[in-house]
Amino acid sequence: MKPNTSKRYDYGRARLARYGLFVALSALGSQAYAQTTGGTDPAATGSDEDVVVLSEFSVSTEKDYGYRASNSIAGTRTNTPIKEIPMNIQVFTKELVEDLNIKNQVDLEAYNASLVNGAADRFSDNVIQQAYQQFLFRGFQQNWGLRDGVREYDPIDTHGLARVEVVKGPAAALYGLAYPGGVMQNISKQVEFTRPFADFRLTFGTFGDYRATADINATSTVGNQAFGIRYNGVYEITEDERAHSRGEINFQQVNLAWRPSDATIVELLVEEASRYIPNGLQGRFEQAEGDGSNRASIPIQEIKDIPYTWNWSDGKAVRGLETSMVRGSITQKFTEQFQVRAYLQYSDRMELPGNGWDANGSGGADSWENGGGWDRQRDVIRSTYHVRDWGNKMHAYGATGVYKLDFDAVKNTFAFGFNVWAEDEESRAWGPINQATTTYIEVPAEKGVKIITPKRPPTDIIPYSDGGPNGNGFHHEDNSNDYYYVNWQGAFLNERLHTNIGVNKTNLKLVTWNSGASTVPDNEYEADKVSPMYGAVFDINDNLSVFALYATSLFPDSSKDSFGNQFSPQVGKSIEGGLKLELMEGKISGTISYYQITQTGGSQRDPNADNTTTARWDRLTPAERAADPQFTNGSTADPNDFLPRSNFTGDQVAGGEQQSKGFDIDVIFQPARNWQIMASIATVDHEFTESAIPETIGQTYPQAIKTRYAFLTKYSFSDGSLKGLNLGMGLHGGTKALMDYVTWNGDSVARYEPARQTVDVFASYAFKMFDRNSFVQLNVRNLLGEDDYAGWQATGSNTVLATKRYAVPLKPVIRLTWGLRF
């Protein structure tokens, strides 16, 4: 199910080579395991994640058990115990991911209460791209995260990840560019030198979906040298209860490692991935009630008595995402006190948001299309042929050094280094010259639908970048940043006081073109900023520590006003304090914190601001205005016949201020070795405190949820007749979610979606098959059938505001997995 395009990238590259490598690795792995006996069940040992010898730059999980992680790399850029870091950090371990059968890091967001995955497609977990400007982290909008410390735009298959670390609060002192809410750091798998292993899994779902995965790790030693190779592969057919929903996921990852001595390790990561899903699955056309003044929005499914599993997709025009990455790194230990790691990475991505015959309209899914939509006069849905791509070619390189300097009373760890990242981004669109070239889909009064689509695109299709009709057209961007940082961790008072102090200097540059024929940039933007961080943790006793932190965030704003004035970057400042727990001999561990984050800078649009057009209006005489086509009403006979100045106001102005404050509680409780409980609770109070638009003061972003919670528990039977059985349940939800603000009777009124509560359950049983460790696992997502929502219910009166949404039924998703471990 590949997109039908060859306009920029070869989407079929290296397929045969990858599958050949998979076969070769499988053979190599089988040979290695034939020389071992018994094997070790990762579930029994508590970890199948990576442990490497040179651990200053990699996460060690030797002390992790189940859902509890003891160390983090994201909070300091070096491997550091979480209890010594003055931040609230939650780690999604590999065991948690596998228990919940979560297949990409986006869906993990449900299990941290500080995160809101807004506008998600709740029918499917085949995520092409997280909804733009709909992901909220501590109330602030966020659009990308990190992978091994480098910017990452796209969803990552969890099969290629060792863990995901959530670092709450600004982190510009560590990573240069950073959002104020925090950082999701995705940690890739690596070769594990300690043991060979293989893990094969097959998963089958209720709606015809299936997934196959392999994780093979093989090592060899020659004298004092060690070699390792690790392969992770995924092939998945995705499908949900909606019509035409069949999609596909491919993921291939190879890790190579060479350890010529105990002081040196050289690593290479090669990865390619793709995912596709039909366009139009969320296309819900809606119609106003009466004259539309009551803001009701009635889905076509309600008007025509069509089930919500119906959609206008033909299953052929797909959304697609293809990514590839190559990264090489070397880690060198010069002395026991000094280590350095350097890396070089190349990656590219190609996203196809639209590819073929798609519909559009007020409730449609693809806003870049022209034409199309629900034609109510003919009672048909009209599609228009359109292709749009969004590609990025990126490279990054950098180095980090760690130096330890210990005295009798003070222990010091210094981390310092630099990072350079750059991308060449290009987005293009294609469409027919005649947008009236359409196809029609009949809208039936009864359930079921007949879809009619042409066999080929129109003959007059032309790229917008080559002079075609107006639309999304062409956009090209060269974006780069480089930063330089120093971080000091100190341990005083018999290691009861730990400090974390850092500073970062970041340089930003952005050059954009909005025409494929233009050689002169439309906009150039440069900025630089110094970002500090100061924090400390003090151990009151062995069970309780107190911490405080001041940190900053940095994000560019490339907007200019109509006069060409550039705006300052968005800068966030945070004050946070709280407690770190290690109670009942470590059975209860976690963090409780209170924070206040303020972001200023950037820009916003003021509808009343003067601009170059109003300046020109002011310069002209009344007669000149009346004669000017831009200002006239169409008649030049009357020298006063021109449009008022207020018709032309509006421009970008300096950004206002927004603030978020709240509590976070993240705790792991292990009453017994075979019983785990994870809890995450957060309250977020975000609002705009200063704005050029007075009515927005006191408001917040759509999708905002005041209070969220997530719980997860698992019980493992370790002896008796039920030995090998694991039972677990997850629960996540929150209070009502803000959808929008509407003006009603002169006031701004907030409209909400009802509160949600979703239950996931799982059960697994481990046993021996062919003298190997095997297991079966049952997962049920959305056990209670929690509804989705659409539109706004009709009120029957133009004088009554529509404030209730239509419920969209969702069925539970059942999946059964069989696994074999060597």
Oligomer: single chain
Helix vs. strand class = mainly beta
- Please tally the β strands and state the result: 43
Roughly what percent helix? under 10%
Supply the number of helical segments: 8
Roughly how many Å apart are the termini?
Answer: 33 Å
Low-confidence region ranges = 3-20, 23-54, 361-371, 445-455, 465-472
Structural Rg: 28 Å
- Main sheet record: 22 strands, antiparallel, barrel
If you average the pLDDT, what whole number results?
Answer: 84
Shape: globular
Percentage of residues in DSSP E strands: over 45%
Provide a short characterization of the protein structure.
With 822 residues, the protein is mainly beta. Strand 21 (380-406) and strand 22 form a beta hairpin.
Features:
disordered N terminus, five-stranded mixed sheet, 22-stranded antiparallel β-barrel, mainly beta, 822 residues, globular
Describe this structure as you would to a colleague.
This protein has 822 residues and is mainly β. Helices cover 7% and strands 50% of the residues. The chain is built from 8 helices and 43 strands. The chain has a 22-stranded antiparallel beta barrel. The protein has a 5-stranded mixed sheet with strand order 3-9-10-7-8. Strand 1 and strand 2 form a beta hairpin. The longest helix has 20 residues, at 15-34. The protein is globular and about 95 Å long. The two termini are 33 Å apart.
